[in-house]
Amino acid sequence: MNVLIKRARIFRQEKGSEGRQQDILIRDGIIEKIESSIISDDAHVINGEGLCVSSGWVDIFAHLEDPGHDHRETIQSGSLAGASGGFTDLMLLPNTRPVIDCKSQIEYIRSKSAAVIPNLHPIGSISKGNMGKELAEMYEMQSSGAPAFSDGLQPVQHAGLMLKALQYVAAKKSILIQLPDDQSIQPSGLMHEGLVSTTMGLPGKPALAEELMVSRDIGLLRYTESRLHLTGISSAASVELIRQAKKQGLDISCSVTPYHLYFKDEDLSQYDTNLKVNPPLRSETDRLALIQAVREGIIDCITSHHLPRHRDEKECEFQLAETGMSGLESVFGASNHILGDPRLLTEMLCYGPRRIFNLPAPEIAPGNPALLTIFNPEAEWTFDLSSARSKSLNNAFIGKKMKGKVIGVINGNKTYFNP
Q1: Which of 206, 214, 326, 336 is most solvent-facing, going by the fewest CB within 10 Å?
Q2: What is the pLDDT of residues 295-347, one digit of tens each?
Q3: What homologous superfamily does CATH list for 3-52+365-417?
Q4: Does domain 57-356 bear CATH number 3.20.20.140?
């Protein structure tokens, strides 16, 4: 499909590069022209006030449940949700059945990429079988295209194994992703431990479980001089630990979810199981600290932590519900609603994660392949069921008013435009 984007502000990696509105003509997946005014009789025209364009966005921590749990999500449905949310690249969790812990599983996911709109980047498991006991075949997985390693939803608990993994990626110039959670601390906790959990009569999980893991992994990182990305940061104390680690020159980065920026533990007062997540929603003080850390650049990117659940796993008593929230479609609208800064969000959703995980994108220039996200940061809309493309609907943003709408994505000859 040939596409003509009219009067769009182009957000490039260099700050301040967005200027006057320009037209962009894409023909056969290649950017043919960028000029002040272009007319084409054979192109699909994208027009409207407030259009913006950047290189394609990346989600670094999404679970598409394939193989093994296709009643929750499939590669096809999850990829469509990703495209609807503005993502041209998805980094996929290894917590599948079987686990993505060997070359064949990496190749299986990568082979699916040709049939869907986003580029799929399978994250290799750190440990065999996701069991946290011995290292997986990291060399073969990296050679097959794994951009990073993580045990995903089952963070590495054993310090010795984490040390070995950090030493490996230091030698091979890769990176580990860790969801900081010491699972030995209040494993039965259902939400953030605090006044709200006491009032609601629910067992709480303290922020200490996260902060101890952050502190431990920073110590291991310092010892190995390796590379580490901490995802799902949710507490003010974690932010401060990462701030100090960066000041010391450690190669550490981190990410936050839209729901930790938007919601707080008080929002659980109606026992909405879609808000049962891990790490849990924290206090208002923590939420505000996260927002400030994004603005200061301490937090490097925003990621969905897309975790689909079947309705039977959420439409039940709060104590019995599974943790997790789907969310690829709502990342931009929710984040922009809080931050209101499209320049900052293109850094958080595109250029930041691409630098960290070495995922290059063609420059937005004539002659280059088109890898673009088109969005309107001023559009106001309500995220309703008709907007959802994921197979699972466990998204607490459904019914919420959003500011900022994704218009569509272009990945070469593959395109998707929201209705």
Answers
A1: 206
A2: 999 999 999 999 999 999 999 999 999 999 999 999 999 999 999 999 999 99
A3: Urease, subunit C, domain 1 (2.30.40.10)
A4: yes
